Amino acid sequence: MGRGAVKGAAKGYESEFLMVLVFSSKISGDNQLGGSIPAEIGEYPQLVYLSLTRNHLSGSIPPSILCRIRIVDLSNNKLTGKIPACFKNSSVIEMLNLENNYLEGELPQQFGEMLSLQTLKLGGNRLNSYIPTSLANCKQLEILDLNNNKMRGIIPNWIGQLSSLKILILRSNRFEGLIPSELTTLPLLQILDLSSNRFSGIIPANLSSLQALKDQTVAAEIFLSGDIGTLKLYVDRVTINNKGQWMEFVRSLALVKCIDLSSNNLSGGIPPNMGSLEGLIILNISRNHFKGEIPKTLGKMIQLQSLDLSHNQLSGMIPSELQLLTFLGYLDLSHNNLSGRIPQGGQLLTFDTLSFSNNSDLCGLQLNTTCCGIHKNKSCPPSILPGINVDETDAEKDIWWGVGLGLSYAVGFSLAVGLRVCMDSKESERMKLVENIKDNQLGGSIPAEIGEYPQLVYLSLTRNHLSGSIPPSILCRIRIVDLSNNKLTGKIPACFKNSSVIEMLNLENNYLEGELPQQFGEMLSLQTLKLGGNRLNSYIPTSLANCKQLEILDLNNNKMRGIIPNWIGQLSSLKILILRSNRFEGLIPSELTTLPLLQILDLSSNRFSGIIPANLSSLQALKDQTVAAEIFLSGDIGTLKLYVDRVTINNKGQWMEFVRSLALVKCIDLSSNNLSGGIPPNMGSLEGLIILNISRNHFKGEIPKTLGKMIQLQSLDLSHNQLSGMIPSELQLLTFLGYLDLSHNNLSGRIPQGGQLLTFDTLSFSNNSDLCGLQLNTTCCGIHKNKSCPPSILPGINVDETDAEKDIWWGVGLGLSYAVGFSLVIGVLCLTTTWSRKCFQIMDKIIIYLFGRFRK
User: Fold this and answer.
1) With a threshold of 0.85, does the pTM exceed it?
2) Pair 631, 551: CB distance under 8 Å
3) Cβ neighbours of residue 348 under 8 Å, at least 6 residues apart?
4) Which of 43, 118, 615, 693 has the largest CB neighbor count within 10 A?
5) Would you state the pLDDT for residue 217?
């Protein structure tokens, strides 16, 4: 049961009081409250916040509740009937959340009297109504969510008058008509979800005018006023479809910019000027009747992470400009009439058959089809290699040449190993050879002859069952070599007679062992070196200092030993350094901090000791809050992007693989070492950092307040150390924080009760014996028996231990007076109006008595 809190505004003895009543399972555990809500609860003049969410309350809503209470959350119950129309003093209401009940009927016109309303959430009911015209008066409205009802009619033109509107969700109703152009005049609108309705017509041409979706920068946080003073009690949430899944986004909604018009009757073409919405993260216009080509301008939406154009009638080729969407993590173009070759660059290479299926004339690697094979009556599309055109005759020669070469491999190699040669008819002496035979069931050893062909520039045999040793010739002249995820054994060969051409070498997840050859230093063009997941037992070779173009060095999960050499600071192009799960030891060299582009540093699960370098805050790429230029390593031939780099890091307690759009990821992971000392306060200057994990070390001292300046932080793990003191209130400023673990330390005092900290549960704070607060379901006064009680949850009020004990027993007595699942405070105290007034007079005297002692 949540405890009431009293805040006094000093006006001599003529004090005004605010009361907060919280009986929600979110904050106080599952209360299982049943029965109906008594009408008397809305009569108490000091009640400003009422949360009864996630219980089993039934019956109708008493009209008095909606008269004077600022914040009302009755969501996730079993309430029935109509929304009451009594709003005699409703201008004070700021938030009203009635979603996920069984409410029905019309929306009352009196909604227009809620002049201070900022959030209105009525989703998941049985409401059968038009949008009331009076709602046009609610000029402060920021969130309007009516999803999953039986709402009908059109979107009224006056919607454009709600200039504060940021989120509009009308999903899964019976709305119809055109999408009004007035919607496009809303300057702050960043989530528009009209999916699963009956809208018709075209997408408004001026939808590109939505200013909040054109801006690539992160908007100011949507911090609705669900608070009393500095106390944040109400945490707003919205649920949208992202990447094919329903996801709930909590209050840091400034990251989410979304348009979802799916499952309607919309037609026409996709407006080309939609490409100007460069800040859009999610675009879903699937399951409509759109025709025409996919506009090339969509390639300008460089922040786009999810794109769904499926189940329409789109035709033409997939524009190559979509390769520019380097953050794209979800794509669905299936069930259209698209044709031609699927572009073979950028993120498009990372999607499988499901993203392109049911387009009869579409072809390419992602569909495991060759375009020449399906276009029997057409000239073959341009070659997979840019600048080289072949007609059908040349293509057939090329295929048969590959077949002959494939049959010549006797042991363990298949027809798929046939090397495809693309010849320029004008310059036949210029040949480039590309072999991409990944994800097959190839077995046996790699024939030495494969490295002898002088035109071979790219070789990918990843994700097969190849065994044996690596032929030295492979590492002599090929620019890009990917032999990862096989069963290769032995040592890495030392033959690099022409290794200065090698740009990418990926041998991870094999059974390679032994020392790293010193000849690595001859790879002067090397940009990516990935040797993780082997059995290598070696020091980092000193010759690697010559590889000045190295951008990714990943040696994770080996038996590597020794120290990180000081010359590491000479690799000025290094962006990603992963030495995780090895046997490295010694100090973390300060030279690491001089790397200007370093944005992922993972030294976890080693034997490093000493302190965190004080100048770690000098890492320039981690100080910058803006998204860095994309890490686009040169795994390409001309404009053809064949190699897509990936790294795996621990984010939010889970192992996650990030594909080549790594510019979003800025990470420091020093966990599971023997590091000691304190956390440097100047680490707070790394304002662009997304992930910080220094758990399972021996750090002592307090958590620096300066960590509250790391405003981009999404994951923070300081667990399993010896940190002490109170949790700094500045952590409430980390509004994007989605994962927090402060467990298994020596922290004490009250957990701050604001911002994202209210969204974390017991696991984030457990095993800190002197820590207390709502998140641990403990009252601070109760556990500090030999100490003065920490400051009250409401600022400006301090209580001593005696008062705290009285307050606890007063709450206990109040709780025991619940008859059937309800409290004496909000239950039926008296049977007559006269007795009701007497009871409330007694309560007023108690509050005045307590407040008088607080002031002393």
Assistant:
1) no
2) yes
3) 318, 322, 323, 328, 331, 342, 366
4) 693
5) 61
